[in-house]
Amino acid sequence: MSGLLKPRLAPRKSGPLAEWAAFKEPTYVLFSCGCFFYFWALYFGFFYINSYARDIIGFSSVSSVNLLLVTNAVGIPARPIVGWVADKYVGPVNTFIILVASVSVLLYAWIAIKDTASMYAFSAIYGTAVSASQGMFVSSLASLTRDPRKMGTRFGMVCTILAFATLAGPPTAGAIIDRAGGRYLYAQIWGGTVMVLCAVMIVAARVWGTGSKLLVKC
């Protein structure tokens, strides 16, 4: 079967590690800034959902670990399903915006979670939204990159930037929680607000790159 396949583009020779001209494109800069905010707050929930369940709701250590497993497990079916919907109907960038906005709302809603049942429900919904949004990150960048030959370099560049955000996110949340005397309120507000900033930046990148028509698949 592989003998019948033909590559879409000729094999690319090794090129520069960075394409500095990309930072002159507002679409790429806005998308990169938005994703920096996204990855800054992305793992806050995964790191602190079980400690919140223990400290605030009274989960046992075993139950809190089970909660984290639920949060991760629900993402397994979510990613391919959401990816199919994005490819077929909505477009990856539009889907990414919707999911990031949903994660923001969920982080704010986390403030109101005070019992076991709602904690499990929150974990399942939050895990679905976060996992699905992670799956849309790469395809969104591909959708906004006009020349597919530049995709690899641009993806590597943005991932280098995002590495710092990913590394700083959980310690930032932990410092906020410690400063608040063990209360999670301000960290939850921080996480939700950072995700709002991400959504705003991705919307700006989408408008700059493809126009302001809402019904355009992108």
UniProtKB/TrEMBL annotation:
Belongs to the major facilitator superfamily. Monocarboxylate porter (TC 2.A.1.13) family. The chain crosses the membrane at residues 28-50, 56-77, 89-113, 155-177, 189-208. Keywords: Membrane, Transmembrane, Transmembrane helix. The keyword Transmembrane helix applies. Its main location: membrane. InterPro entries: MFS, MFS_trans_sf, Proton-linked_MCT. It comes from the Eukaryota. GO terms for cellular component: membrane. It is a multi-pass membrane protein. This is Aspyridones efflux protein apdF.
